[in-house]
Amino acid sequence: MAIFSYISGIAGTVLNPAERALFSERPPWGAILFARNIETPDQVRNLVGEFRELLGRDDAPVLIDQEGGRVQRLRPPHWPAYPPASVFADIYADDPDAARRAAWTGARLIGEDLHELGINVDCLPVADISFPETHEVIGDRAYGDTAEQVIELAASASEGLMQAGVLPVLKHIPGHGRATVDSHMELPLVKTSRTELELTDFAAFAGLHHLPMAMTAHVIYTSIDPDNPATTSRIVIDEVIRGDIGFDGLLMSDDLSMKALSGRFGERTAAALDAGCDIALHCNGDMEEMRAVAAGARVLSGDAAERADRALDRAGRIACDTGALREAFAALTGYGMPS
Questions:
Q1: Which of 21, 75, 85, 132 is the most exposed place for a label (fewest CB within 10 A)?
Q2: How does residue 338 score in pLDDT terms, banded at 50, 70 and 90?
């Protein structure tokens, strides 16, 4: 069965008949879950299983944004509350080693939560550097204000996830930190010179180029491509993401329904894929938009298919004592972790 180059959202807590028909006709590479899809652990497990059974692929990627802080789809009472990345940045100021251990432990525990549900991809870590002008949409999601610190903490979090058998998604490549507007609502323009970007924003991602997957930024860098955001810029993807940064993993777009992008949804999908994204991501569960994205997607083949397979091959799992890890995490961060 052919696999098409898109990841789709789902409208509710079970697949509806229209979704079942669409996913049967044009099977997506994976699905992404949001709060609207989540009620109880058993319900989430059933939804994940239903999706994979329909596709006939036991390893079909199921993604979620489970960073901690504001961006956490799984929440109490069924799942612990995790801190935002800025908590690890604060610890780093006094004790870098403790911060690295805390970032690893938190992600390892998040990975355990996801593994229990069958979710195998987490859209973490955020490698955007924090600047004085950084919009609050990134805000406390940043691991720090230097590339070195961001690399260390993001790498620790990524390793924690992967040891739980969950694949990380590096975002938002090649950098959203200098954006002064929210790309969910409008298109950011970053006017910083390419040289400065290479020394800062891009350097953080270069230090993490080995990760299996990354998500693009809907941001225009005027010194590189003044007309197109990274998601739809062949120049940015070829010269910066694949070139300067050296990222050779699976590249997915950020959500195509965000208002930073314009045009019909089939056009947005084609533009992202033409620019060099391997996978187009659509999140909101709107069936009319989903059909357009699916129609604009292509059969996953060639280099994109190889990168997708290579990413999934990185999944592995090492057993751990989650109770001991939760106690250690609480001691490191002050966040209580119910077992």
A1: 132
A2: low
